Amino acid sequence: MLITFEGIDGAGKSTQITKLIGWFERKGIETISLREPGGTDAAEKIRRILLDSSGEITPLGELLLFSASRAELVQQVIIPALESEKTVILDRFYDSTTAYQGYGRGLDLDMLRSIIQISTCGIVPDITVFLDLDPETALKRKFAEKSIPIAFDSDELDRMERSGLEFYRKVHQGYRETIRQNANRFVILDAKENADIIHLKIKEIIRQRFPFSAAIKQ
Fold this sequence. Notes:
By secondary structure, the chain is α/β, with parallel strands linked by helices. It has one domain (2-216): P-loop containing nucleotide triphosphate hydrolases (Rossmann fold), CATH 3.40.50. The chain contains eight helices and five strands, in the order E-H-E-H-H-E-H-H-E-H-H-E-H. The protein has a five-stranded parallel beta sheet with strand order 2-3-1-4-5, with helices on both faces. Helix 1 crosses helix 8, helix 4 packs antiparallel against helix 5 and helix 4 packs across helix 7 (165-181).
């Protein structure tokens, strides 16, 4: 089972992933948790390049770096884990590329789909949880988390975080369009709700979507 979490930074993905891992572990379900970009030595090095605020990267270069990181993660970790019947929980996957590099950076969507198909080896998540939060609230959370004033040129921000409010509005719209086109795979949850309530909803959704798993019925 491949479960992916999507949403703008500040939506609470990390919190919900941690809660879900804990639930699976208590049920005796073997789980592996990964993030994008990252998850392998090479992918983590690429992550550092992508987030380094001291350098500029073109939108196309950004796309190809994210895709290279993903290709490594898919082939070295995700495919072997799924073949071993482990549950994989992934903090971001190719929907982030569509939203951020496609809609946010304005890259050609047809080109994007071709590159995604190559980098993922055709893997599609069984379910994608989208934590929906407006960009303004998400960014306020992010700045509060870092305990810094709202300023996109802050040295405390990584390269992606410096992209500005209008960029994140485009990203959010990109997610909405992606969800519209993949309605059967996505589950939309209000990220403004209490974290424990969101976790309960995620558990119930997984029970409904995967009734064949006896371990998650309780």
